[in-house]
Amino acid sequence: MGKFVINTDKAGKQRFNLLASNGQVILSSQGYSSKAACDNGIESVRKNSQDDSMFDRKTAKDGSPYFSLKASNGQVIGDSQMYSSESAMENGIASVRTNAPKATVEDKS
Known about the structure:
The chain is of the alpha+beta class.
């Protein structure tokens, strides 16, 4: 099963990564000013990851595919890593869908 890992960045903001069951990061959040806001971000991932229209499929300047997960207000909750192909990106999206709803939370902040 996947898990959300919360850390504090150098600027003092809370961030989370969603890890797949193999430990690979599949989604990284923005920085949040409080633990409560970070927790709300995690709940937003759980909810919005089940709606395909919330995934914004993108291409980086170097041609690498990646995706962003948006909240219902259109704000980006988190971004994926860069992928080697569109099919690998789609597998990443499927992994977020599978792992997010039941992922545990590990607070390392």
